[in-house]
Amino acid sequence: MIDSHSHIYDDAFKEDYFETINRAKIAGVKKIILVGFSEDTNLISYNEMLKHQGFLYSTCGIHPSEVDENYKNKLINLEKFIHEHKTYAIGECGLDYHYDITYKEEQKLCFIEQIKLAIKHDLPIIVHSRDAINDTYEILKEFKGQVRGVMHCFSSSYEMALKFIELGLYISLGGPVTFKNAKEPKRVATLIPIESLLIETDSPYLAPTPYRGKRNESSYLPLILEEIGKLRNIDIKELETIIDNNTLKLFKLED
């Protein structure tokens, strides 16, 4: 198993960081993608990758919540970071209208520039979209055939999932697919092409059942895999192999 989206460098793990990594390994997790979303976390992710080479893989980006009137300077610093540091993806980046839309237009512009960076440097993008699915799609549609990437922690409809897949993107599912009343995530998990599916924890957020509401961690990834296996009526090992291969292909990881 590969956790395609995690933030285990977060302060939530400061008391048991190494134990968290060991629990993940014991649970059968072979690799974890550490996703950066700000100048600080981009560097932290990179440094942790250096300490755990072959297990942790880092990315860098500007999360929409990090976008402000200074976003152009942040983009300059991001490209400088990409030139000076090994990274496996741009992101997470995207749009988030949930709490604050003060910088809505700046979010769009920053997202577009990060897509262009991903194309320029032949990297995938990790897309965050919250309460902004239509704008996210309209932006990505303009880059069809040029960009590869993943819709992280996908929470929209099956029909929208197909539209993003048609653009060449993967769909990643996390803890919410295990929630009892999560009808649409379960529908997405059951029906989308298996070749377009990734799994993630988004640790420390969105822990799966039976840990819902608690801190999430990569060792819970098997719970997500098992739920999808039940929904699709497929052998777990076969499912694991397919999803691992999808993840290796997208991020160009070493097997």
Q: Would you write up a description of this structure?
A:
- The structure is a single chain.
- 43% of the residues lie in helices and 14% in strands.
- The chain has 255 residues and is α/β, with parallel strands linked by helices.
- The longest helix is centred in the middle third of the chain and has 17 residues.
- The strands form two sheets. The chain has a five-stranded parallel sheet, sandwiched between helices. A three-stranded parallel sheet has the order 1-2-3.
Q: What characteristics describe this protein?
A:
single chain, 255 residues, alpha/beta, three-stranded parallel β-sheet, globular
Describe the SSE topology.
Elements: E1 2-6, H1 17-26, E2 31-34, H2 39-51, E3 56-58, H3 71-84, E4 90-96, H4 104-120, E5 125-130, H5 133-141, E6 149-151, H6 158-166, E7 169-173, H7 183-191, E8 197-199, H8 221-232, H9 236-251
Parallel strand pairs: 1-2, 2-3, 4-5, 5-6, 6-7, 7-8
Helix pairs in contact: 3-4, 4-5
Helix content: 40-55%
In percent, how much strand structure appears in the residues? 5-15%
Annotation field: number of helices: 9
Query: Termini separation (Å)?
Result: 12 Å
Which residues form runs of ≥5 with pLDDT under 50? Answer: none
Structural class designation: alpha/beta
Biggest β-sheet: count, sense, barrel?
A: 5 strands, parallel
Number of strands: 8
Order of helices and strands: EHEHEHEHEHEHEHEHH
Return Rg in Å: 17 Å
In short:
The protein is an alpha/beta fold.
